Amino acid sequence: MIDLFDKHKGIVDRFTRMMQMGVNAVGVTNDRILSPTRAMINGRETILAGTNNYMGITMDADCIKAGQDAMVEFGTGTTGSRVANGSYSLHTELERKLATFLNRKHCIVFTTGYQANLGMMSGLAGPKDTIFLDADSHSSIYDGCTLSGAKLVRFRHNDATDLDRRMARSEGEEGGRLVVVEGIYSMLGDRSPLADFVELKKKHGFQLLADEAHSFGVLGPHGRGLADEAGLEEDVDFVVGTFSKSVGAIGGFGAGNHPMFETLRYAMRPYMFTASSSPAAIATALAAIKKLAAEPQRRERLRANSARLFDGFRALGLEIGCNVVSPVIAVKCADEVSTIAMWNALLEAGVYVNIALPPGTPNKLCLLRCSVSAAHTFDDIDRIISLFRTVVARKAAA
Amino acid sequence: MTARQETIDQICKLLTPFNSSAKTLNADTDISTDLNIDSVAVMDFVMEVEDHFDIEIPLNVVSETRTIGELAAVVEKRNQKA
């Protein structure tokens, strides 16, 4: 008998080496959450700078109250999918409100952000179609593409000229073409050059989807994401997003103006064959989206905090993942072993950031990835900079 | 030299920068398991192959191709198509 686990021995070796160097960097336990930016980890109060809690909305009193009320009124769970059990009025209300916020005609809510990408990719594209996806796309996009059965063509990250060349190679084939980009890329924090892709649309005539997971609530005058910031929303056919970051809940959405958009509900397995979001999750998302619309100062605060951390890291001479201010600020490190060591030293000193290693990163990069929150104070940001000065900049200089 | 061997040689040359192991490359080398190259690096390597031969190798095809010899067959088939 061949043990099915044999193939995972490489993972065990890598994990063992990491554990010999300290704590589990990819499985930290937060014993208590004190605020959107503080937790007790290993008995120590720790600044959270790796939780994608961009708006710092997770402990908001109104959102918590909305979740509590919904749980009392509708119960703990929905016990089935919307196709089988029907929807709760909360689901349809959220879809309506979110469509209004997004300025789109249609919106479909999913149980997680991961499933939103699985559903949208596989609902939009089928075996005769081609999906062109940015090389740095999130795994949920890759998995959704695989589920679709479409032909998958990967183009060089943020490179519309490369996409142009690859589209030319498949010119004349049957089926539709979907191009997938992200508003902010999760590992390096860089934005998609959306105008370049929109320009290419005129030449090749494809449909364009933007995953705004890290940019929804964050970018644009209305907080709708990169397309909002770039003034190109009309050229983006479909938008995907998540409730697990700036919305501080769990769930995801797909939205668009296509007159047949609603038919996707009956064509997306990750929507049809899973239980719908719990009442509390939906109600907190509803309350949070109201806040995102009414409180643009949260975006301003996030921008100011991001700029402060970005400038501080630059002054230390650290190499950052992208050259524009972004709420994702990733510091490039030399190799896996030193990255794990520095990550442990940062945690011991009282700041939690993400460790990001290949193949989860592009170009074999080892990263200490920070995500900034509107709820961070300038003192928090300065403390993070100071710890990176001690732990990371000194190490790099050595 | 046969056309197939020439394709294999060119693929080996493209694969060399991705091969951090001491193993020598030949037609029977399993790109992923023999060389311990991760899934993203395999896709990056295939992009180089696509550009070198000016052909399209969809990811669906990549996932079904294991050895350098198999990849050479894919390249030749797609070259004929073009």
Taken as a percent bin, the fraction of beta residues of chain B is under 5%
Strand order in the largest sheet of chain A = 4-10-9-8-7-5-6
| Strand segment tally of chain A | 14
| CATH topology category name of chain B | Non-ribosomal Peptide Synthetase Peptidyl Carrier Protein, Chain A
Q: Could you say how many structural domains of chain B there are in total?
A: 1
Overall number of domains of chain A:
2
pLDDT averaged residue by residue of chain A = 96
Kindly name the structural category of chain A. Answer: alpha/beta
Proportion of helical residues of chain A: 40-55%
What CATH first level of the largest domain in chain A would be assigned?
Alpha Beta
What is the H/E string of chain B? Answer: HHHH
- Low-pLDDT sequence parts of chain A: none
How is this structure best described in words?
The complex is a heterodimer of chains A (398) and B (82). Chain A has two domains: 157 residues, Aspartate Aminotransferase, domain 1, CATH 3.90.1150.10; 234 residues, Type I PLP-dependent aspartate aminotransferase-like (Major domain) (Aspartate Aminotransferase, domain 2). In chain A, 41% of the residues lie in helices and 17% in strands. Chain A is built from 14 helices and 14 strands. The termini of chain A are far apart. Chain B has 82 residues and is mostly helical. Chain B has one domain: Non-ribosomal Peptide Synthetase Peptidyl Carrier Protein, Chain A, CATH 1.10.1200. Helices cover 56% and strands 0% of the residues of chain B. Chain B is globular. Classes of the chains: A alpha/beta (398), B mainly alpha (82). At the A-B interface, strand 6 of A face helix 2 of B.
